[in-house]
From TrEMBL:
UniProt feature, compositional bias: Basic and acidic residues: 17-29
Region listing for Disordered, in residue ranges: 1-33
Protein name: DUF2786 domain-containing protein
Pfam families assigned: DUF2786
Basic residues: compositionally biased ranges: 1-16
Domain DUF2786: 217-255
Transmembrane segments: none
InterPro entries documented for this protein: DUF2786
Amino acid sequence: MGKRNREKRAAKKRNRPRPDATKPGHEPDDFWVPPTNLSAGLLANTLLAAAREHSMGDTNTAAACAAELSSSRFARDQRTVATGAGIALNMVLTSLWETGWLPADAWEITRRNSDAASVSLLVDVIAEDIDQYNSSTVDDRWAAQVQRLGATVWWNRDSPHLPQWAERAGVHFELALRVTITLMAALMPLPELPRIVPPPGTASRRSAASVSGVDQKILARVRALLAKAESTQFPEEAEALSAKAQELMNRHAFERALLDADTQRQQAATSTRLWLDNPYVEAKSSLVATIAEANRCKSVFYAKLGFVALVGEEMDLEITELLATSLLVQATRAMVAEGSHTTRSGMSRTRSFRRSFLISYAVRIGERLKEAGARAHDPSEDARLLPVLANRSRVVEETFRSMFRHAVQKSTSVTNGAGWDAGRAAADRANLTIDRQAVNS
């Protein structure tokens, strides 16, 4: 091809109409170099198209797009480019909320699959997203997640966010654009999840679960028991103290159920998600499922994403989440303390040992929790308690089935007897910890 023909093709490519990257089924053939007179909205489409190509495996597009939009050709239009980046990020985030994802979910999946810069940018985008809504239209649970992420608008709202983020992160504008594109590319393909909290702008504060969680006075007593359990040098005393803490929580749950019986309060179920860290995610999910069952909740494991979805009454969910998080820490520490394992021929058996360890640990923990629940149960209250628990179980089951119509049961096999024995012994020594400080450590 002659030089003149190449120039004509390049000019035609630069001036062709820009397809809408947000339309389903759009698959741009190659990166398009936009003319300099485009609006922020059309630049947002350019960034979205680059992100879509990146998500489909074209890793060169993000760098090419970022380099072009940060070049001297666009030096005078950096504000417009940055505004377009903000529009594109907001569009992707809004789409994510509409498919059932929550702020904590977006943060968890990003920190697992992307770098620290992407996580930092995501937190800011979440802050900017919620800031545009009246607080009365944001569900309490949504607002609590945003607060836990530390997502606040720290930048000057009179100027686009991205250049200010780049300056704060100590990176140049080109890299900021590349992070923008790769972050959107990571979020775009995420699957739809059951909606458990209404997105901002579509809720009222009253739409948050109205049932209060664990009574703070009870929680203070539990924390005191667990503090003693953590500080003692005697395993038997630690086990007795931590088991007493779980028994106290169960008794509190039953007392609340009796109060429901007296007030004839309508039973309700909600859902939450507990993300798990690698390795041995499947075995860890067994521990979460066991704890959930002991606390009157149901669970579904999302193996490809790495979290367990829990369904139950709100207080039961809080007990499950706190206890599961603490016991996962304890189980991991006990597992690592067992060291490496090899066969007589020198072949490593560490992976099978640790997997079997965690499964056995889960089974024994389930037995201990049921024992604690039995001690908390007063048979003389059955006439009032059992109908409430039966009704709650029915509501939880109905909610679970409506959210997870295609869930299937899956059995887990054990291939290492030594791991099974060690896991059971470790579970007997475990503290049934539900202290928030342990959760956040």
